[in-house]
Amino acid sequence: MKNALFQSDIKSLKLLNRGKVRDIYEVDKDHLLIVTTDRLSAFDVVLPTPIPGKGAVLTAVANFWFGRLQHIIPNQLTGIDPASVVAESEREQVIDRAIVVKKLKPLPIEAIVRGYLVGSGWKEYKKEGSVCGIALPAGLCEADRLPEPLFTPSTKAEMGAHDENISYEKAEELLGKELAAKVRDVCIALYKEAAAFALDKGIIIADTKFEFGQDDEGKLYLIDEALTPDSSRFWPADQYQPGSNPPSFDKQYVRDWLEASGWNKKAPGPELPADVVAKTTEKYRLALRYLTQSHIEKLVSGYVRFRKNTYEKNQALFERLTRQGQSPKTIVVGCCDSRVDPAIVTDCDPGDLFIIRNVANLVPPFEKSGNFHGTSAALEFGVCHLEVENIIVLGHAQCGGIQALLNQATETTQQDGFISGWMNVASHARNRVLSRMPEKPMEEQARACEHEAILVSLDNLLTFPWILERVASKKLALHGWYFDMDRGELLRYNPASNRFEAFLVQ
Ligand SMILES: [Zn+2]
Predict the structure, then answer these.
(1) Cα of 344 to ligand 1 centre, how many Å?
(2) How far is the CA of 146 from the centre of ligand 1 (A)?
(3) What pLDDT, in 10s, does the model give residues 383-401?
(4) pLDDT score, position 409
(5) C or N: which end of the chain has fewer Cβ atoms within 10 Å?
């Protein structure tokens, strides 16, 4: 790891400002160099201990968002390589942590967007029922998601002072009506898009702060740092629970340590111990990795979190589930398009169900020849060895497998092996529907075919001798269920009426 950079020292350029975290230099009359150091500020005090790599992480995260959001608003980036504007001996200080930006006139406000009820917003809500004077519905908990993201501007304080929230009307006074409205709309659009993207990556962006600048023509740009852990509250989505303040990716770890240390929150701040520095470094890296990682990396890091947060803390639960998993009482033959999860639909414990999936929940007929088939093998194991008491064939609305089946122009297909076998099984369902309702709209045919596929499977189940025998002796019951996703309704097949009927809901 590279050494931490507490303060940059670039003599070839004129230093304009040292902020809490950023050192700003003038490149020429149109450009600035912004160096993001490894300084960490907490409670508005810059701490004496830098966090190695933090500047590089913040730069990477901000650049990532600038690129991702530039269709909403242009940004300050120029694409100029920072190494090209400093002396050779100074390059080490700018690699990965600096950007060359357009020199713009910053707006005199900080544009804060809040998507969740937390921090000072929560404190105000508890007392006044509002956030920055904006009234909110009663009954919200700490960390609840707000009905709509709120734009809550504040003034820009000088270093060492606290920013002060201002009303939207005050922002209009400072910016003018038109510009204030534009800033507000851009902020909400930026937040919404970023929050949705991050959530998909496992991060909740609870709130964030944007800054804007204008060029000589008055055109608006996104400046400063966009959506970094320093300018936003990032929460791991899997640990989010309304009613309590979730653990944060960002400085919360340091803040907690500082609170516990008894420091009076006035400069100078205390040195941080090595383990706090290491932990904080890791948190910053984690935020970057979450945002930019691929799906498979997400799975692996999800597993690592699962092990640390769930498995190691809750081994008893897993032992229980493992035992339950050995003795399910029910097999569910579901569709391999897994939008309908049987365990979720029936709200049962993991392990209660032995789930077998096949295209459109189809069960092939028993084959004496003993041709190996995954569904048959799983059924045999469940019925003969685990001795389940029920088999549910669970069909569902909007089934992609059924759509594919109906779209086949002819019954004969050139495909070999499993698919042709499946088409063969499925063609019974398809033929029954097409002969019964040749003229009906596709949607109705699909629904009928989804029902028929369940009946075909129920018929085929009875071709297995060991299923037939157990059904006859009442050790095993067969059920046909259909989940209508549009209505959230579970139907069951009633052989007496030959119809799918709703379960009675108490
Ligand atoms: Zn399906």
Answers:
(1) 16
(2) 35
(3) 999 899 999 999 999 998 8
(4) 47
(5) C
- The ranges assigned to domains in the chain are 14-102, 105-307, 315-502
Q: Against a cut of 0.70, is the pTM above it?
A: no
Identical fold, 14-102 and 315-502: no
Could you check whether the bond before residue 273 is cis, i.e. omega within 30 degrees of 0? no
Q: How far is the CA of 353 from the centre of ligand 1 (A)?
A: 18
The letter for the amino acid at 47 is L
What's the 283 CA to ligand 1 centre distance in angstroms? Answer: 40
Residue 103, beta-bridge partner list: none
The CATH class of 315-502 is alpha beta
d(CA 56, ligand 1 centre) in Å: 46
Q: Cα of 359 to ligand 1 centre, how many Å?
A: 7
| Cα 330 to averaged position of ligand 1 atoms, centre (Å) | 20
CA of 432 to the centre of ligand 1 (A): 19
pLDDT in tens, 52-65: 999 999 999 999 99
How far apart CA 77 and CA 379 sit, in angstroms, is 60
- Which CATH number does 14-102 carry? 3.30.200.20
Predicted confidence at residue 371, as pLDDT, reads: 64
For the residues of 380-422, what is the DSSP string, one character each? HIIIIIS--SEEEEEEETT-HHHHHHHH-SSS-----HHHHHH
With a cut of 50, list the residues of the chain below it in pLDDT.
1, 409-413
The domain over range 105-307 is classified in CATH as 2.40.50.580: no
